[in-house]
Write a structure and sequence with these properties.
Layout: H1 2-7, H2 13-17, E1 21-22, H3 24-41, H4 46-55, H5 59-65, E2 75-76, H6 82-89, H7 97-110, H8 117-133, H9 145-167, E3 174-178, H10 186-192, E4 197-202, H11 205-218, E5 223-226, H12 229-232, E6 241-247, H13 252-259, E7 263-274, H14 282-289, E8 291-299, E9 311-318, H15 332-335
Parallel strand pairs: 1-2, 3-4, 3-6, 4-5, 6-7
Antiparallel strand pairs: 7-9, 8-9
Helix pairs in contact: 3-6, 3-7, 8-10, 9-10
Binding site for S-adenosyl-L-methionine: 179, 229-230, 247
Main location: cytoplasm
EC number: 2.1.1.-
Protein backbone atom coordinates (compact mmCIF):
# COMPACT_ATOMS: atom_id res chain seq x y z
CA UNK A 1 0.00 0.00 0.00
CA UNK A 2 3.00 2.36 0.09
CA UNK A 3 2.45 3.25 -3.56
CA UNK A 4 -1.23 3.88 -2.92
CA UNK A 5 -0.53 6.30 -0.07
CA UNK A 6 2.02 8.13 -2.17
CA UNK A 7 -0.30 8.43 -5.17
CA UNK A 8 -3.21 9.64 -3.04
CA UNK A 9 -1.50 12.34 -0.99
CA UNK A 10 -3.80 14.92 -2.56
CA UNK A 11 -6.85 13.27 -0.99
CA UNK A 12 -7.53 14.91 2.38
CA UNK A 13 -10.18 12.71 3.94
CA UNK A 14 -10.66 14.97 6.93
CA UNK A 15 -11.64 17.74 4.55
CA UNK A 16 -13.99 15.41 2.66
CA UNK A 17 -15.67 14.45 5.91
CA UNK A 18 -16.30 17.99 7.19
CA UNK A 19 -18.99 19.00 6.88
CA UNK A 20 -21.15 16.01 6.03
CA UNK A 21 -24.55 17.60 5.48
CA UNK A 22 -27.62 15.47 6.06
CA UNK A 23 -31.25 16.50 6.17
CA UNK A 24 -33.39 15.94 9.27
CA UNK A 25 -35.60 13.59 7.23
CA UNK A 26 -32.66 11.44 6.07
CA UNK A 27 -31.19 11.55 9.55
CA UNK A 28 -34.28 10.29 11.36
CA UNK A 29 -34.90 7.58 8.74
CA UNK A 30 -31.31 6.41 8.96
CA UNK A 31 -31.40 6.36 12.76
CA UNK A 32 -34.53 4.23 12.63
CA UNK A 33 -33.06 1.79 10.11
CA UNK A 34 -29.73 1.37 11.86
CA UNK A 35 -31.33 1.24 15.29
CA UNK A 36 -33.44 -1.70 14.20
CA UNK A 37 -30.31 -3.32 12.80
CA UNK A 38 -28.57 -2.70 16.12
CA UNK A 39 -31.40 -4.33 18.05
CA UNK A 40 -31.13 -7.38 15.80
CA UNK A 41 -27.37 -7.66 16.07
CA UNK A 42 -27.33 -7.16 19.82
CA UNK A 43 -30.36 -9.45 20.09
CA UNK A 44 -32.27 -6.79 22.00
CA UNK A 45 -36.00 -6.22 21.70
CA UNK A 46 -37.48 -2.71 21.81
CA UNK A 47 -38.76 -3.48 25.29
CA UNK A 48 -35.26 -4.41 26.46
CA UNK A 49 -33.86 -1.21 24.95
CA UNK A 50 -36.41 0.86 26.83
CA UNK A 51 -35.72 -1.06 30.05
CA UNK A 52 -32.01 -0.39 29.65
CA UNK A 53 -32.70 3.28 28.99
CA UNK A 54 -34.84 3.51 32.14
CA UNK A 55 -32.07 1.94 34.24
CA UNK A 56 -29.32 4.11 32.77
CA UNK A 57 -30.22 7.56 31.51
CA UNK A 58 -26.98 7.66 29.51
CA UNK A 59 -27.68 4.36 27.74
CA UNK A 60 -29.17 5.91 24.61
CA UNK A 61 -26.59 8.68 24.47
CA UNK A 62 -23.69 6.28 24.72
CA UNK A 63 -24.99 3.76 22.23
CA UNK A 64 -26.66 5.94 19.60
CA UNK A 65 -26.28 9.69 19.94
CA UNK A 66 -22.50 9.53 20.07
CA UNK A 67 -22.49 7.88 16.67
CA UNK A 68 -25.18 10.00 15.02
CA UNK A 69 -25.93 13.37 16.58
CA UNK A 70 -22.53 14.14 18.08
CA UNK A 71 -20.06 12.80 15.56
CA UNK A 72 -17.80 15.40 13.96
CA UNK A 73 -18.57 13.90 10.55
CA UNK A 74 -22.20 15.05 10.45
CA UNK A 75 -23.67 18.51 10.19
CA UNK A 76 -27.45 18.68 10.26
CA UNK A 77 -29.19 21.15 8.00
CA UNK A 78 -31.26 22.28 11.00
CA UNK A 79 -30.57 22.07 14.70
CA UNK A 80 -31.68 18.74 16.08
CA UNK A 81 -33.91 18.94 19.11
CA UNK A 82 -33.52 16.54 22.02
CA UNK A 83 -37.04 15.28 21.41
CA UNK A 84 -36.06 14.15 17.92
CA UNK A 85 -33.55 11.71 19.32
CA UNK A 86 -35.59 10.54 22.28
CA UNK A 87 -38.56 9.76 20.04
CA UNK A 88 -36.33 7.59 17.86
CA UNK A 89 -34.90 5.83 20.89
CA UNK A 90 -38.39 4.88 22.03
CA UNK A 91 -39.59 3.99 18.52
CA UNK A 92 -41.25 0.58 18.38
CA UNK A 93 -40.73 0.09 14.67
CA UNK A 94 -44.31 0.88 13.69
CA UNK A 95 -43.11 3.54 11.25
CA UNK A 96 -40.92 0.99 9.44
CA UNK A 97 -42.69 -2.30 10.20
CA UNK A 98 -41.57 -4.60 7.38
CA UNK A 99 -37.94 -3.50 7.42
CA UNK A 100 -37.69 -3.75 11.20
CA UNK A 101 -39.36 -7.15 11.30
CA UNK A 102 -37.24 -8.61 8.51
CA UNK A 103 -33.92 -7.27 9.77
CA UNK A 104 -34.55 -8.44 13.32
CA UNK A 105 -35.93 -11.83 12.31
CA UNK A 106 -33.40 -12.72 9.62
CA UNK A 107 -30.21 -11.39 11.16
CA UNK A 108 -30.86 -12.39 14.76
CA UNK A 109 -32.04 -15.90 13.90
CA UNK A 110 -29.63 -16.82 11.10
CA UNK A 111 -26.31 -15.11 11.83
CA UNK A 112 -26.05 -16.13 15.48
CA UNK A 113 -23.65 -13.26 16.10
CA UNK A 114 -23.66 -11.14 19.20
CA UNK A 115 -21.79 -7.86 18.95
CA UNK A 116 -19.72 -6.08 21.51
CA UNK A 117 -20.31 -2.37 21.88
CA UNK A 118 -16.94 -1.70 20.20
CA UNK A 119 -17.85 -3.83 17.17
CA UNK A 120 -21.22 -2.14 16.82
CA UNK A 121 -19.68 1.33 16.98
CA UNK A 122 -17.02 0.43 14.42
CA UNK A 123 -19.67 -0.78 11.96
CA UNK A 124 -21.62 2.46 12.31
CA UNK A 125 -18.40 4.44 12.03
CA UNK A 126 -17.54 2.66 8.77
CA UNK A 127 -21.10 3.28 7.60
CA UNK A 128 -20.80 7.03 8.05
CA UNK A 129 -17.24 7.29 6.76
CA UNK A 130 -18.38 5.62 3.57
CA UNK A 131 -21.49 7.76 3.23
CA UNK A 132 -19.47 10.93 3.63
CA UNK A 133 -16.55 10.06 1.34
CA UNK A 134 -18.84 8.60 -1.34
CA UNK A 135 -20.31 12.07 -1.81
CA UNK A 136 -16.94 13.07 -3.29
CA UNK A 137 -15.40 9.83 -4.58
CA UNK A 138 -17.21 7.10 -6.49
CA UNK A 139 -16.49 4.22 -4.11
CA UNK A 140 -19.58 2.14 -4.83
CA UNK A 141 -22.75 2.16 -6.92
CA UNK A 142 -24.67 1.68 -3.65
CA UNK A 143 -24.89 5.21 -2.28
CA UNK A 144 -28.18 5.55 -0.36
CA UNK A 145 -27.91 5.28 3.40
CA UNK A 146 -30.67 2.70 3.71
CA UNK A 147 -29.27 0.52 0.91
CA UNK A 148 -25.86 0.31 2.58
CA UNK A 149 -27.57 -1.18 5.64
CA UNK A 150 -30.12 -3.42 3.92
CA UNK A 151 -27.79 -4.71 1.19
CA UNK A 152 -24.07 -4.33 1.89
CA UNK A 153 -24.06 -4.72 5.67
CA UNK A 154 -26.81 -7.34 5.53
CA UNK A 155 -24.84 -9.44 3.00
CA UNK A 156 -21.69 -9.12 5.11
CA UNK A 157 -23.47 -10.38 8.21
CA UNK A 158 -24.94 -13.36 6.40
CA UNK A 159 -21.46 -14.25 5.14
CA UNK A 160 -19.95 -13.76 8.60
CA UNK A 161 -22.48 -16.22 10.01
CA UNK A 162 -21.51 -18.79 7.36
CA UNK A 163 -17.79 -18.33 8.07
CA UNK A 164 -18.47 -18.62 11.80
CA UNK A 165 -20.01 -22.04 11.17
CA UNK A 166 -16.96 -23.10 9.17
CA UNK A 167 -14.64 -21.89 11.94
CA UNK A 168 -16.06 -24.63 14.15
CA UNK A 169 -14.32 -27.20 11.93
CA UNK A 170 -11.35 -25.13 10.78
CA UNK A 171 -8.60 -23.29 12.60
CA UNK A 172 -8.73 -19.50 12.46
CA UNK A 173 -6.22 -18.03 10.06
CA UNK A 174 -6.17 -15.80 7.00
CA UNK A 175 -9.06 -14.42 4.94
CA UNK A 176 -8.84 -12.77 1.51
CA UNK A 177 -11.56 -10.49 0.09
CA UNK A 178 -11.20 -10.37 -3.71
CA UNK A 179 -12.40 -7.16 -5.36
CA UNK A 180 -13.18 -5.56 -2.02
CA UNK A 181 -14.20 -2.18 -3.51
CA UNK A 182 -15.51 0.03 -0.71
CA UNK A 183 -14.68 -2.70 1.83
CA UNK A 184 -17.64 -5.06 1.48
CA UNK A 185 -17.56 -7.65 2.85
CA UNK A 186 -13.93 -7.46 4.03
CA UNK A 187 -14.15 -4.52 6.45
CA UNK A 188 -17.30 -5.84 8.14
CA UNK A 189 -15.76 -9.32 8.39
CA UNK A 190 -12.61 -7.85 9.96
CA UNK A 191 -14.80 -6.20 12.61
CA UNK A 192 -17.02 -9.22 13.25
CA UNK A 193 -14.31 -11.90 13.13
CA UNK A 194 -11.22 -10.41 14.79
CA UNK A 195 -9.72 -13.90 15.13
CA UNK A 196 -9.05 -13.82 11.36
CA UNK A 197 -6.28 -11.89 9.59
CA UNK A 198 -8.05 -10.10 6.73
CA UNK A 199 -6.41 -9.16 3.43
CA UNK A 200 -8.36 -6.85 1.09
CA UNK A 201 -7.46 -6.96 -2.61
CA UNK A 202 -8.48 -4.56 -5.36
CA UNK A 203 -7.06 -2.97 -8.50
CA UNK A 204 -8.48 0.53 -7.92
CA UNK A 205 -6.06 2.73 -5.98
CA UNK A 206 -8.55 5.30 -4.75
CA UNK A 207 -10.67 2.58 -3.13
CA UNK A 208 -7.67 1.07 -1.37
CA UNK A 209 -6.59 4.55 -0.26
CA UNK A 210 -10.03 5.02 1.32
CA UNK A 211 -9.77 1.61 3.02
CA UNK A 212 -6.31 2.54 4.29
CA UNK A 213 -7.89 5.57 5.95
CA UNK A 214 -10.77 3.48 7.33
CA UNK A 215 -8.45 0.81 8.77
CA UNK A 216 -6.35 3.42 10.53
CA UNK A 217 -9.45 5.23 11.81
CA UNK A 218 -11.06 2.01 13.12
CA UNK A 219 -7.74 0.45 14.17
CA UNK A 220 -8.29 -2.63 12.01
CA UNK A 221 -5.12 -4.64 11.24
CA UNK A 222 -6.09 -5.41 7.63
CA UNK A 223 -3.52 -5.87 4.86
CA UNK A 224 -4.34 -3.95 1.68
CA UNK A 225 -3.23 -5.41 -1.64
CA UNK A 226 -3.09 -3.45 -4.91
CA UNK A 227 -2.76 -6.22 -7.49
CA UNK A 228 -4.60 -8.19 -10.12
CA UNK A 229 -5.94 -11.39 -8.58
CA UNK A 230 -4.59 -13.62 -11.35
CA UNK A 231 -1.07 -12.31 -10.71
CA UNK A 232 -1.49 -12.63 -6.94
CA UNK A 233 -2.60 -16.26 -7.34
CA UNK A 234 0.77 -17.07 -8.94
CA UNK A 235 2.73 -15.59 -6.03
CA UNK A 236 3.74 -17.05 -2.66
CA UNK A 237 0.12 -16.48 -1.58
CA UNK A 238 -0.99 -19.53 -3.59
CA UNK A 239 -2.95 -22.02 -1.45
CA UNK A 240 -2.31 -19.95 1.68
CA UNK A 241 -5.76 -18.71 2.76
CA UNK A 242 -8.22 -20.39 5.11
CA UNK A 243 -11.07 -18.37 3.60
CA UNK A 244 -11.36 -16.60 0.25
CA UNK A 245 -14.52 -14.50 -0.26
CA UNK A 246 -15.88 -12.42 -3.11
CA UNK A 247 -19.08 -10.52 -3.78
CA UNK A 248 -20.35 -9.52 -7.24
CA UNK A 249 -16.90 -9.76 -8.83
CA UNK A 250 -17.53 -11.78 -11.98
CA UNK A 251 -19.33 -14.82 -13.36
CA UNK A 252 -18.97 -17.92 -11.20
CA UNK A 253 -16.59 -19.93 -13.46
CA UNK A 254 -14.32 -16.89 -13.76
CA UNK A 255 -14.48 -16.14 -10.05
CA UNK A 256 -13.63 -19.70 -9.06
CA UNK A 257 -10.65 -19.79 -11.42
CA UNK A 258 -9.38 -16.64 -9.69
CA UNK A 259 -10.20 -17.73 -6.14
CA UNK A 260 -9.57 -21.45 -5.68
CA UNK A 261 -5.81 -21.37 -6.38
CA UNK A 262 -5.51 -19.12 -3.32
CA UNK A 263 -7.42 -21.44 -0.95
CA UNK A 264 -5.42 -23.68 1.39
CA UNK A 265 -6.09 -27.40 1.00
CA UNK A 266 -8.97 -28.32 3.29
CA UNK A 267 -10.20 -24.71 3.52
CA UNK A 268 -13.08 -22.71 2.02
CA UNK A 269 -14.12 -20.31 -0.72
CA UNK A 270 -17.39 -18.37 -0.39
CA UNK A 271 -18.99 -16.42 -3.26
CA UNK A 272 -22.02 -14.17 -2.76
CA UNK A 273 -24.26 -14.53 -5.80
CA UNK A 274 -27.88 -14.33 -6.88
CA UNK A 275 -29.88 -17.53 -7.24
CA UNK A 276 -29.85 -17.47 -11.06
CA UNK A 277 -26.24 -18.71 -11.33
CA UNK A 278 -25.84 -21.84 -13.50
CA UNK A 279 -25.09 -25.09 -11.71
CA UNK A 280 -21.52 -26.34 -12.01
CA UNK A 281 -20.43 -29.83 -12.99
CA UNK A 282 -19.09 -31.44 -9.81
CA UNK A 283 -16.71 -33.66 -11.79
CA UNK A 284 -15.29 -30.80 -13.86
CA UNK A 285 -14.96 -28.57 -10.81
CA UNK A 286 -13.05 -31.32 -8.96
CA UNK A 287 -10.83 -32.25 -11.90
CA UNK A 288 -9.93 -28.74 -13.08
CA UNK A 289 -9.82 -26.72 -9.85
CA UNK A 290 -9.60 -29.34 -7.10
CA UNK A 291 -12.71 -28.20 -5.23
CA UNK A 292 -15.93 -29.75 -3.96
CA UNK A 293 -19.20 -27.85 -4.00
CA UNK A 294 -21.03 -27.54 -0.66
CA UNK A 295 -24.75 -26.76 -0.13
CA UNK A 296 -25.38 -23.02 -0.65
CA UNK A 297 -27.03 -20.78 1.95
CA UNK A 298 -30.02 -19.05 0.33
CA UNK A 299 -31.62 -15.92 1.80
CA UNK A 300 -33.55 -12.78 0.84
CA UNK A 301 -32.77 -9.17 1.59
CA UNK A 302 -35.30 -7.05 3.53
CA UNK A 303 -38.14 -5.66 1.37
CA UNK A 304 -36.72 -2.15 1.73
CA UNK A 305 -33.50 -3.14 -0.07
CA UNK A 306 -32.94 -1.61 -3.50
CA UNK A 307 -32.04 -4.97 -5.08
CA UNK A 308 -34.61 -7.23 -3.48
CA UNK A 309 -33.99 -10.63 -5.05
CA UNK A 310 -32.86 -13.94 -3.53
CA UNK A 311 -29.17 -14.28 -2.70
CA UNK A 312 -27.02 -17.31 -2.05
CA UNK A 313 -23.63 -17.90 -0.50
CA UNK A 314 -21.97 -20.43 -2.79
CA UNK A 315 -19.54 -22.57 -0.76
CA UNK A 316 -16.57 -24.66 -1.93
CA UNK A 317 -13.99 -26.74 -0.09
CA UNK A 318 -10.52 -27.09 -1.60
CA UNK A 319 -9.44 -30.75 -1.56
CA UNK A 320 -6.52 -30.75 -4.02
CA UNK A 321 -3.91 -28.42 -5.47
CA UNK A 322 -4.85 -26.45 -8.57
CA UNK A 323 -2.73 -27.01 -11.68
CA UNK A 324 -0.09 -24.30 -12.12
CA UNK A 325 -1.73 -23.20 -15.38
CA UNK A 326 -4.65 -21.69 -13.41
CA UNK A 327 -5.66 -18.96 -13.18
CA UNK A 328 -4.77 -18.15 -16.76
CA UNK A 329 -3.25 -14.74 -17.42
CA UNK A 330 -4.06 -12.01 -19.98
CA UNK A 331 -7.71 -11.77 -18.83
CA UNK A 332 -8.49 -15.22 -20.25
CA UNK A 333 -10.63 -16.26 -17.24
CA UNK A 334 -13.09 -13.54 -18.31
CA UNK A 335 -12.88 -13.74 -22.09
CA UNK A 336 -12.66 -17.55 -22.31
CA UNK A 337 -14.41 -18.94 -19.27
CA UNK A 338 -13.71 -22.47 -18.12
CA UNK A 339 -16.40 -24.89 -19.31
CA UNK A 340 -17.39 -26.11 -15.87
CA UNK A 341 -21.08 -25.17 -16.03
CA UNK A 342 -23.49 -28.11 -15.91
CA UNK A 343 -24.69 -29.01 -19.39
CA UNK A 344 -28.49 -28.77 -19.75
CA UNK A 345 -30.15 -32.21 -19.63
Amino acid sequence: MKENRKSNKAINYQELLRPFNISIEDYTETVAVVRQLACALLQLTDKEVQEQAEKDENFGTQLYARIFARTSYIELEHELQATDFSSNLAMTGEKYPSLAADVITLLASRCKLRLTKSQYEKILRYYYLRLAVNQHLNLSRIKKAQDIVTSDIFDSFMLAGRIKEALNSSAAGKLLDIGTGAGIPGIILAILLPELTCDLLDTVRKKLAFLDFVCRDLQLPCNLLWQRVEDYAHSQARHSYNFVVARAVSSLPTLLEYSLPLVKIGSFCFCLKTTNEPELSAAKLRNLLGALSLPPAVYSLPPAAQANFPRQIMAYRQVASVASTYPRLHNLPRTRMLEIAQEPS
